Predict the structure.
Amino acid sequence: MTETHVRYPHKQGLSPMPRVDAIWLHPAYQTAYRWLARLECDRPFCRHQLRHLLDAARLMWIANLEEGCGLDREVVYAAALLHDIGKATQYAMGAPHELTGARLAGDILASLDGDVAFTDAERRAIVTAIRGHRRLRADAEPLERLLCRADKASRPCFSCPADVRRACSWPDAKKNLCIQI
């Protein structure tokens, strides 16, 4: 892939994440993201758009730091950005989004080269985390564990109106009825 990541100046102590930018700008990612946005445009609760993806990434990053997991920041953000990329396929065809998403994420990650490429080990960890983010396995890898937990914790069920909360397919026991991590 040619240089498609955003070049921006270093601002307020924040460092750029060119590998995450390359994922965001990837044509296959953008196609899947826009398809999902169209399918969820009338959904009254929990959309799987950038706000959810970045909330999950930030929760993962905080837990990574607090728990001393030692994961690379771009790997954490890449996993979060990609984790629901198969959701449109689930809506349209009934295929589990963690499986179609892992496949699409693997293709996107494999197409990145040069200074935006992830290592084989990083790609494997990201794809494994996406595949396992819905149900935590007993032997889950650190990135997979963080993604599974953050994905669920990033849902602000407490802020949904009562009628929307009742229409949600999540059982009440799973709903986040208070702020948590």
